[in-house]
Amino acid sequence: MTSAVRLDSSAQQTMSTDLPPSLLDAKSVDLSHGNTMALACVADSVVTLTDEAQLDSFMASYANNPEHQPSLFVLSGGSNVLLPAQLEATVLQPQMRGITMTAQTERYVDIEVMAGENWHDFVVYSVEQGWYGLENLALIPGLTGAAPVQNIGAYGVQLEDCLQYVRAYHLPTQTWHRLSLTDCQFGYRDSVFKRTPNTWLISRVGFRLHTDASKILASYGDVQTVAQRYAEQKNRLQPTPADVMQAIIDIRQQKLPDPKQLPNCGSFFQNPIISQAQFATLQQTYPTIVGYPIPDATVKVAAGWLIEQAGLKGGGIVPIVTHQQQALVLTNHSPYQATQDDVATAQYYIAAHVYEKFAIQLSREPVWINADGSIGYDEHVV
Ligand code: EPU
Asked: Three-class SS of residue 368?
């Protein structure tokens, strides 16, 4: 577990000024509507950032106030966090908007998107413009600035496939950086931003998108079938990127609950990675077990399958239960009242049952936020 961000002493300046009142938006702010799991949460204070200069200004004041330096916590769309009932921190909310084309050739366009743009709206906009590559990532909740943190992925595509760079502010040293694809250190649902929490505030994301529609492959079984059906309805031989996007939207809407109707934070458990030997042994007892071999001689097992086979599809500890159509998603049936503790109770219950049956440990995917704004990652839940 890491502690919440503190400035390097070298970054602190001697001049002392108070925080600009215009930037310190509000105190004791209810964030139960600011997280898609709709957990009850009250934060000490919230700072809304609508341009990058506001962050410079806020951080200069912050550094000049060594007597008063609350923990800082960056909250984007709140779609992948489990917030505590009391968040004793100053919450920074990046809400800068804008989509800019920075380069164009016959084959591709370079697009820069500000962190506060809604991710799904940007995906739809890009396809409408004839910019392709992000179709498979349609309908993922949240804002663009949070997308690199866990290298969002769906239907065979990950953010890193189209990402070129990230512009981000390094909170401990108060400096702006442009991080290349390599700098971002992407992995499966992982990045440098996730590994060094409360360190970076992402303000812009740069993408290179194709303008050649024929490059788009809907290789995932379901997606291919549904997209082909759309194409045929419009008398086309091949699905267009818009057909693929519509197929993804349909499939996700069928399987995944809309957080606005039934609060959730997407996949709750990661798909665990086990050895080939353990997978082979499990296959003998459970021939239908779903697993995807990974090049390093391990197997990624479908956590949704494990949970369903443990008899917990639709189960959990009320009010936090798994979704009827996708056991990997935990839903909150008591919006704005259920707390982080309720989630932990359900999580331990589900993970313990899966462990008992398969001897596989499930790790949570959303980020657990401690009361001081620090982050508890990678805890095995059994
Ligand atoms: N399965 C079950 N029962 C369930 C759920 C799934 O048996 O209740 C089986 C399915 O039949 C399938 C396998 O598990 O054979 C995998 O299911 P699916 O294709 O739905 O994908 P997933 O592994 O459950 C991952 C991502 C999703 C992403 C989908 C599609 C993770 C942790 N989750 O889910 O991401 O949309 O693939 O690519 O990698 C998210 O992060 O919020 C998210 C939804």
From this structure: strand
